Amino acid sequence: VTLDYITGYADQISVAPGETIRFMVSARGATAVAADVVRTRCGDRNPAGPGFSETPVVTGIEGRYPVEERHCPAGSYLRAPDSPRLQGLESFTLQVVVWPTLPGRAEQALLGTWSATARRGFVLLLDAQGVATLRLGDGQQVVDLSSGCPLQPRHWYLLAASYDAASGQLTLRQEPLARAADGDVPLDVKRDVRLGPLASTAPFLLAAWQVTPERVGGHYDGKLERPRVADRALSCQEIELLRGDNVPPALAQHLVAAWAFQDEIATTAVPDRSANALHAEAINLPARGMTDSTWRGTDRHWRDAPAQYAAIHFHHDDIYNAGWPATVTLPVPADLPSGLYALRLVAGDLEDRIPFAVRPPRGKATAPIAFLASSATWMAYGNLNPLPFDIAELLSGRLIQLTPANLLIDAHPEWGGSLYDVHADGSGVCYSSRLRPMLNMRPGYISSFGCQGSGLREFNADTHVVDWLDSTGQPYDVVTDEDLHAEGLDLLQRYRVVVTGTHPEYFSTAMLEAVRAWRDEGGRLMVLGGNGFYWRIAYHASLPGVMEVRRSGPAIRTWECQPGEDVQSFDGEIGGLWRHLGKAPQSSVGAGFVAEGFDVSSYYRRSPASRDPRAAFIFDGLEDVEIIGDFGCQGGGAAGVEIDRADLRLGTPAHALILGTSEGHTESYRLVNEEISIAIPNVTGGSNPRIAADLVFFESPGGGAVFNTGSIAWAGSLSHANYANNVARITSNVLRRFLDPSPIVRHRGSGK
Ligand SMILES: [Fe+2]
Fold first, then answer.
1. Average pLDDT, whole number, for the chain?
2. What are the φ/ψ torsions at residue 703 (nearest 5 degrees)?
3. How far is the CA of 605 from the centre of ligand 1 (A)?
4. What is the spatial distance between Cα 220 and Cα 316, in angstroms, rounded to a whole number?
């Protein structure tokens, strides 16, 4: 099926007035698009909700732009620098340790100078049946020498191939490093050939080969370890000697390259330890910090045992940067107010909106409130689709309705998956970039993992918060997770109140430490979401727009790191849940994740603690209210989708007021794994009393405070009855008091 579309991405998620943002567009079924900028007000198309709303903004870029379909060059690989030492080799030995994950998927290049179009050069590869093969070509004739026996998936092998140009002899060795697989024995094959010069103009690549000068192909799935190149045919003994990390002096003069995958893990550089210093570059973010064939399970960090982490895991569906040319370049007007915006693209029936935040001018705030847009969460979920996600219907408790965006995501795996997806080879997607189309990060997108009614999550659910902020008339700035990561406490100190989105799930160490420090020096934080402050992430030190997560349990997770691979490659920090890293969400914001369910939401019942004078301002005008939020467009209630609870053992401050607790959740709501230490029968709503959202308030040192709704659905109730309802009233009451500069202090003798 070919589907027409317009899509694209921006080079930034957050841009300041006076700066420039570029939009890269691809289209099928259209040769030109009309473009303009809109301010995004609400992306909810549910007629029962506040209504889809956006405001065109005159920026000077309005007009028609030619577009064409662009190729997205997915597939990770390494590129060695151009050098006659590699490309001019006549006799050689290539050797590498491999752990293939999809042998037999297609021909997969391991290393060499092969040009698939010129049919020249040499390459060690796995053929279409997964058989190790040495291929040589002189531009006329192509010769293959194959081991004759396919590699077993997820088993380690040493592969070594040599060519002696003088004698014309080819050799190939395929040696399983563990002999568990039936019939898997070392194989040595030889063949004599007559070929002209192999000199290739194609670059020396690992895990891919050149197709044309503009395009690579032949991508490999799996791990590679300790690749070596020598300038003559080596003996078996010499090959054995080169397997280690120390180059035997007798072989040093024949060693052309020996890439050390355990070096410079946090960068895109792959150092060559040979005298030639032919340092390679990693393209499209193959997974680094991976255990190699020598990993003993005695160390879990690549810094502690680098020699056991000399592997890189490549995927044919890795993508960092689609690399399309800019279609629209927007110099952001110096007077454009901070807010959530989108580039709107229309061609006939086709349309798309590429969102971006306009932050306040650098170093300044233009309002006392900051909306902290959860750009990390948006990226983490980027392109999550119900289609390949085979438990989507079980989780949602209903049949999934596919949208055109779902079909497009499914038809374009080269646009890359979310951090919830697995690669084609079953390994987890641990890096997500925003330099590629993300079709669910859009106003108007309906998610299969939202509740009945509007069915919104992530980016689009956050427009409910924006819509409500607009309804209050209060001026606010929009800043993103990336701004918070880069500027930390300085950014937060410019604001009196920070309002989060509906799902502030992903926090780097810098982000979390900044929020906690600001909270403790008088900051006022309104968490209008659930499943907050949950996973640690890393941003890359030099590559913009990409984040990393290492999923390990117990936790709600759709994949699990391989043993020994839970350390973030971008920064060397241990990955996982903040709960397992000593900073459970309860210790940051009073409540933390306990359950999720994607059918309907529920309401909160007010607690006796909510009558504490400390909470009087929150319930101003609601003194007689007992039930909060038994309405809303996200499942019909304010408590739902993903819900969080207070827990003193996990760090909820002892003085925190639990203002209300939700009840009556459905069987679709199931306790999260980290709450279950032994397998119990009552893990669903209705049978497990832990399954509830807590509405939490507590004062922090320095006159600050935290208000946390503990629920993704909360924001979907704000617009009910034209914003005149108890959810909106509570939220507005909190905002009003939090904006008042007088310290929020817990008076002695008040409450507990
Ligand atoms: Fe989540």
1. 96
2. 85, 15
3. 24
4. 6
